[in-house]
Amino acid sequence: MKKFNLSLLWDCNQDCLFCAKGHVPPGVKSRFSSDEIFKTIFKKRKEGFDSISFDGGEPTLMKDLPKFIAFAVKCGYKEVGVLTNAVLLSDLK
Length: 93
Hints:
Number of strands: 3
Strand content: 15-25%
Number of helices: 2
Radius of gyration: 13 Å
Shape: globular
Largest sheet: 3 strands, parallel
């Protein structure tokens, strides 16, 4: 299976000492727009990737995350994952 990891943003709602991502380096974009993300999902599928994982920072901070997941499924990815600290998933709102 050909897997693609898509880092959506650098932002996070935690400050873990062990985090490999760390702070945004100077000159690096801290967040992709929804349009850029949709285009990347489509492009990588056309390149033959059949597995995608959304990560960050913390991907649940992106309000369109459910739309990205649904679009990836619609594009034909066989496996769609989300690497998250799950803090926001526990919010019943």
